[in-house]
Write a structure and sequence with these properties.
This protein is an all-alpha fold and about 140 residues long. About 85% of the residues lie in helices and about 0% in strands.
Length: about 140
């Protein structure tokens, strides 16, 4: 009986699974270390964090500060426009080949349309904030 079970296990493919498990564990460990390194690198960067922008908005009292904030909000709007354009390309891809996505096509289309709408609204709001700060800049010293 022992010999029969062992042969059956080899035919099912159980024998080569051990090296796969080791490789998968190594890949997971490498991925975790890479993510930790990236997060650590981001945490030490000198870029202004979003909460710093909120503080800058509250403390903006000079023309230069308001112009910098206006530029920041314009950059955000451009990023949102680019993201909306990318989602539009994806939506076109979904619509061009609906057979490729099967039953998921309706969810993919709805998600893409919602993302486009959200990105466009965010770009609009960011441009409003940019105009608001430009107006303050023109009124400031």
């Amino acid at each position: 009986m022992h010999g029969i079970n062992q042969g059956t296990a080899e035919r099912r493919g159980d024998a080569p699974r051990q090296p796969r498990r080791i490789i998968m564990k190594a890949i997971k460990a490498f991925t975790a270390l890479t993510l930790a390194a990236l997060i650590g690198a981001c945490a030490t960067s000198k870029e202004i964090k979003p909460h710093d922008w909120a503080l800058d908005v509250q403390n903006a009292d000079t023309r230069k500060a308001h112009l910098l904030l206006a530029d920041h909000y314009e950059d955000v709007a451009k990023t949102m426009d680019a993201d909306a354009a990318e989602e539009r390309r994806m939506l076109s891809k979904y619509q061009a080949n609906p057979h490729k996505y099967g039953k998921q096509i309706l969810d993919l289309k709805a998600r893409a349309e919602a993302m486009i709408r959200d990105f466009e609204n965010a770009a609009l709001e960011s441009r409003k904030m940019a105009n608001y700060h430009r107006q303050f800049a023109s009124e400031s010293r």
